Amino acid sequence: MSIAQKLYEAGYITYMRTDSVNVSAEAVKKTQAFIAKNYGNDYLPKYARTYKTKSKVAQEAHEAIRPSDITKTANKLALDSSSDKVYTLIRNRMLASQMEDAVIESTQVKVRVSEYFFKLNGQKILFPGFLSVYPESTSEQLLPKLTESQELFLNELFAEQHFTSPPARYSEASLIKSLEQYGIGRPSTYAPTISTILARKYVEKEGRNLIPTDTGMVVTRLLEKHFPNIVDISFTANLEEDLDHIAEGKRVWTEMMHDFYQPFAKQLEVKDKEISRDDFTVLGKSNYKCPDCKRPMIIKLGRYGRFVSCSNFPECKGMRSEDGKTEADQAKEAYTNEFLSLYKPAPQTEDGKDYLLKRGRYGKFWAHPGYPKIKDAKPLEFTSAVFKKVYGTKPKSKDGKRMVLRNGKFGEFWAHPNYPEVKEVIRLNKKEIEAKKTGSGDNLERFCVIIAVLFYYTHLHFLFAR
């Protein structure tokens, strides 16, 4: 969307936040003239093509997305690689929409083997039509020349095994498609909605996939439990339809606000007293027993991520880390052979006491025995052998000095010893480093459509509360 925004601001395409399929008569005429000149009259249909949207919620105040000047190619505009692809896609779509149909000959061959039949399908393009600019939409599958009752001989026989796959995870594109399908949001709000759920850490991006965070899962569960009518997909679609009716002058806005907000405000008052802290901190049950009272424990979401807490909290303050270790277990881990094969021994205080191994928001660290009253913490340091395996040999700066490993906002990096005075750095691949440290990648649970619509309810609440 950001690329399309730049193309629009540069005057290369029409307004892009629309799902309209309407095109001005002038643009159609120019497109037809270009097709006739560059492809020939055979590629022009008898009448100009017009289209009607299939979407009930389409906003057709603008034209369809099209090039401002159909005669200009991406090369003529000297666009960068990303803009070139987006512009070419829009331009080819506009050209194809005004070209003649392709003529394709389809053939089906049935081969009988005893009482069994095998089918073979083929197709041949007789006239390319719009496929001249949209070749990726179909391809030829040519069959050998065969005659009826011809005897065939087996050349090769092989078996293939296929498995049913689960539904694909949502990407930005597939999530927008679902929102459109259910009538949630409008073209102008799709991009801000996704930006919002990413900014609020409800989801994270892993490649193209949107992955739910613990915060997102907790918020979703809280809304589904206490506000099922608000997060209902049909309710959202109907609300969007009401807003459209207001824009079209078919409904009075004060009436609509009263019908929505009065019961919603009462519901908020009730839930403000009813919702407990557990509703937005408890993630689920745990298999561990409390180290203090032996009661069952639950998984909670804290300031620094997941941890396991006694189900009898606050009467019992028993805790474990996510992997089931108590603070005592954590401290003992610092003296195991496995730990010492990876990290250097615990540093010591001035009076000779060992620092304690603890786990915080960003992982394990050394803490002063008096922590947190004495706010003294130190990072863990790999042994020389492990350090070299994870990070390799320390690189040299331009002036021949060994660079220093530092940690910044975007992860670890090599820096000049006199950084930041000398701004010489080498970025490290965060995923590769994490994989080397842990020996495995992430395995996170996935998200659902419902969190995407949270953006709307939050804003409506603030709007009506004013």
From TrEMBL:
Matching InterPro entries: Topo_IA (IPR000380), Topo_IA_AS (IPR023406), Topo_IA_cen (IPR013497), Topo_IA_cen_sub1 (IPR013824), Topo_IA_cen_sub3 (IPR013826), Topo_IA_core_domain (IPR023405), Topo_IA_DNA-bd_dom (IPR003602), Topo_IA_Znf (IPR013498)
EC number: 5.99.1.2
Topo IA-type catalytic domain residues: 1-268
Gene Ontology CC, one term: chromosome
Pfam family, one: Zn_ribbon_Top1
GO MF term (any one): DNA binding
Protein name (record): DNA topoisomerase 1
Organism annotation: candidate division WS6 bacterium OLB21
